[in-house]
Design a protein that fits this description.
single chain, alpha+beta, 6-stranded mixed beta sheet, 13 helices
Length: 379
């Protein structure tokens, strides 16, 4: 029982230390008819100034920077010089000469944080712009971003003829093909592939709350096959709402969606613990929960949804949802293997499932409370 208590305590501990107040960077790069290439990056400035990924920067160390005027000024100036050296743009494999035409000042960073209010002082999302010149004979453009920006949603396009939308991981490159002889399917496949990776990463390792929900779904299932079927129903639900937000059939959700998602974790844990998630109704429930989680995905990707157009938007949506589904299957299979291993102890399977489910429910309700507090008051 001591081992089981430690497992439940770990589940709750993970949720309490999670830091949801950060956003991924986004980039738009446009090549005009004369070969002028302007790259606009919108990213969270304070974590970059302290040299950390947004997800790793704590509010305490960001406050230490923002409220120290002299340090903020010197750090911003150093970051400005570092930023241009960390951006790499290649034309057919050859690096281009870059010009930094815009970078936020220390005053603008502090002013934006103050304007957002005490409760929402982070993240501070501002823009930096870089320009260069691309030769008309260029066939391929590659862009590498500063690693400390983390994942960057990227939309590169040349006039209205060529476009690629990608989720670019640190130390990887965004790639835009500008060649009439190349099939449009190349861009579509690349878009789907990149968003598949992003969808997977959105759950593993970033989506700890999503993982807890899938663990509850597994614990309430009658078999591994039943759990996987529930996962498909859940994916169908979040696919619908994500597409509805992209099509503007639904408005983009506000911060209220985060405590609601935590509530679904608590409810799923309770249902699994009480054993009332019957096969007859579970698929409706899984789909309904999926609809809510789809709004959470849409809230996280709100700025990126605007860049998705045409068939590449469908490729992005399909890739993202497939990536999420693959990650969910990974969570379920891992949980099945872990449960099989724990069954070798003296713990009975029914008690083990029930206690783990109650632990997940407790974690969900604790997180819901902290997220509500953060919305209503100063977290």
């Amino acid at each position: 029982m001591r081992k089981l208590f430690l497992i439940i305590l770990a589940l709750v501990g993970i949720t309490l230390h999670a830091h949801p107040e950060w956003k991924e960077a986004s980039c738009t790069g446009i090549i005009d008819e004369n070969g002028g290439f302007v790259l606009t990056l919108r990213f969270d400035l304070p974590p970059y100034l302290v040299g950390k990924l947004p997800v790793d920067a704590s509010i305490g160390e960001l406050d230490d920077l923002i409220y120290d005027k002299a340090r903020l000024i010197s750090t911003t100036q150093a970051a400005r010089e570092r930023f241009i050296s960390e951006i790499l743009i290649l034309a057919d494999g050859k690096p281009l000469t870059l010009s930094l035409i815009e970078f936020p000042s220390a005053e603008s960073i502090k002013a934006q944080s103050v304007q957002q209010g005490e409760n929402d002082r982070y993240p501070v999302i501002l823009s930096a712009k870089i320009s260069t010149q691309v030769e008309k004979t260029t066939q391929k453009i590659e862009v590498a971003f500063p690693p400390k920006l983390g994942l960057v949603f990227t939309n590169l396009r040349k006039e209205m003829n060529y476009q690629v939308v990608m989720a670019v991981q640190p130390n990887e490159k965004a790639e835009l093909i500008i060649n009439d002889n190349l099939s449009e399917n190349t861009g579509i496949i690349a878009t789907a592939k990149n968003f598949l990776v992003y969808g997977f990463n959105h759950v593993i390792p970033a989506g700890w709350d999503h993982g807890l929900f899938m663990l509850a779904m597994f614990l309430g299932a009658t078999s591994l096959a039943n759990a996987l079927t529930r996962s498909l129903a859940f994916t169908a639900g979040h696919c619908l709402t994500l597409a509805a937000v992209w099509l503007q059939l639904l408005p983009a959700p506000g911060p209220w969606i985060e405590p609601v998602i935590a509530l679904t974790i608590g409810i799923a844990g309770l249902l699994a613990a009480r054993g009332i998630t019957s096969n007859k109704t579970v698929f409706i429930g899984a789909s309904a929960f999926g609809l809510l989680h789809g709004l959470g995905f849409a809230a996280a990707a709100q700025a990126k949804l605007e860049n998705w157009t045409g068939i590449k938007a469908l490729a992005a949506l399909a890739g993202f949802n497939l990536g999420v589904e693959f990650a969910q299957v990974a969570v379920i299979v891992f949980a099945a293997l872990l449960l099989a291993g724990l069954q070798r102890t003296q713990l009975k399977e029914l008690n083990l499932r029930r206690n783990l489910s109650y632990g997940i429910a407790a974690a969900g309700f604790v997180v819901m409370t902290t997220r509500l507090w953060a919305i209503l008051f100063d977290a």
